[in-house]
């Protein structure tokens, strides 16, 4: 793991040493995203800590231990969090070729009980639609950081990008489409683990914003959206959380109410673009293609706050 994690207390009962679950997760690199592996590690550590506190065995965990863990956590954790924890526990066991502790009817019933007892509706990011994007663009300065911020806003909106997709963009991902227009290649998304990618043709206005940033920063290769420190671009990718913080800062500079700025996240450009496209009359299938969605249900969650009839 990037940040090695240690545990106080045994993971395994009996005289044998506990399996090295961190090394097992390391073997997943290349097959899973680094953020996914890191999430598995954090979630499993919390489970292992709970097991140590209750003098229970985390590796291998038996179904009764997992059922008890879920039943105790139902009062404090959301259904989505607990389901994610179970996935991490199962993944660690599989990585070590251990029996799956979740593959029993008792655990399945515990998960169903959690979903019924603590239903959770995902909190949607405040969408940055076309009007709000224009306001945010107008608030950006004309210095190097301001040009970078404009490129982030323009590309994230037109590419319907997740924050991780914005952070992963390279200069080389700017390509030309079949008609010779500037386009952006989004190589890999959350639901595109094989890296098929999608190509989004940029408007003339966005193409100019991006080219202005590249020229001002003197970029030739490497990260496209990168940090600017003391007026100089730093040759490294930004992380997803940095994209979110940057969007909140831009929203604050634009004079948005504090509650609106706080509701803006790294997904706000993607949400707002989807809502804007729907409002322009595009159907759900086109939204799925442009945004790289595999499920129409996911798209409906993005556009549910759009105040127009879906079937007009």
Secondary structure: elements and pairs:
Elements: H1 21-26, H2 34-53, H3 63-73, H4 79-95, H5 105-117, H6 130-139, H7 144-158, H8 163-168, E1 174-176, E2 182-186, E3 198-201, H9 204-217, E4 228-229, E5 232-233, H10 240-253, H11 258-263, H12 268-279, H13 284-291, H14 296-303
Antiparallel strand pairs: 1-2, 2-3, 4-5
Helix pairs in contact: 2-4, 3-5, 4-5, 6-7, 7-9, 7-12
Features:
312 residues, mainly alpha, 3-stranded antiparallel β-sheet, 5 strands, elongated
How would you characterize the overall build of this protein?
The protein is mainly alpha-helical and 312 residues long. Helices cover 51% and strands 5% of the residues. The chain contains 14 helices and five strands. It has a three-stranded antiparallel β-sheet. A two-stranded antiparallel sheet has the order 4-5. Strand 4 and strand 5 form a beta hairpin. Helix 3 packs parallel to helix 5. The longest helix has 20 residues. The chain is elongated, with a radius of gyration of 23 Å. The N terminus and C terminus are likely disordered.
